[in-house]
Amino acid sequence: MYRRLKQGFSNISGRASPSRGSCSGMDHVPDFEPHRHIRLLTFNIQVGINTASYHHYVTRSWQHVLPHRGRIENLDRIASLVRNYDVVALQECDGGSIRSGYINQVQYLAEASGIPYWHQQLNRNLGPVAQHSNGLLSRFRPLDVTEHRLPGILPGRGAIIARFGDIEDPLVLVIMHLSLSKAGQSRQLAYVHELIADYQHVVLMGDLNNHAEELLTNTPLKHANLIPLPDTAHSFPSWRPERALDHILVSPSLEIRNSEVVSYPLSDHLPIAMDIALPRGYLKTF
């Protein structure tokens, strides 16, 4: 499948229809293993565009609408990174349009990295021009995966919620890409907080377009009792990180073994990684 996808990019005129808004089959996805620590990664991949300077927003802006052969090389580099993790949250993916060579980038990264489960959420459908999407990659079989449209004046923001482990006491992962405005973020986080309020083990991952202190003190997330990364976890812009816009926020029940900003400047954002373990008592539910 991976070779077919890669070949399809090199021959855009003879494209095959991509898989859109769907997930992989479950036949070869192993069950969740609660005794293991879980390696998490969140990455805004900017649809595979390699941005290394502010002037690239101008000189490489055409790559947001037209195909570029270097994009597949960037995706392969991203795949070489994400294969080291168990659960990956992806933002700014393309689900299969002209600019991506009609390749579903979430599926491509799953195939290229050898991660058996993938799910793509199509948030803004511009037909053949662009398929703005979030993505989930997982080595574990989820209990279920649901998609949610986040509220906002302009449509096109979404969240993926994946539950793992015990159905009565699951590990809940939320993948999202928030709006730029503070008012929009507040409405979206109010919606998300309602979805996670009854769960004990929660991970919020994604490009939240704001600093953790602001999110956890001046939005509805202040009621969620989540633990942020250190204030120094700057991820944007990737060539000179000055702002902490990408986050992995976790419930106090989850043991953080390690966290870091990964020095992997391919997108305009740097990826964020965290290694967590479920509480010891969680094993008794299995």
UniProtKB/TrEMBL annotation:
InterPro entries: Endo/exonu/phosph_ase_sf, Endo/exonuclease/phosphatase, GPI-anchor_lipid_remodeler. Keywords: Endonuclease, Hydrolase, Nuclease. Gene3D superfamilies: Endonuclease/exonuclease/phosphatase (3.60.10.10). GO terms for molecular function: endonuclease activity. Residues 1-28 are annotated as: Disordered. It comes from the Bacteria. The keyword Hydrolase applies. Residues 8-22 have a biased composition (Polar residues). Residues 41-269 form the Endonuclease/exonuclease/phosphatase domain. The keyword Hydrolase applies. This is Endonuclease/exonuclease/phosphatase family protein.
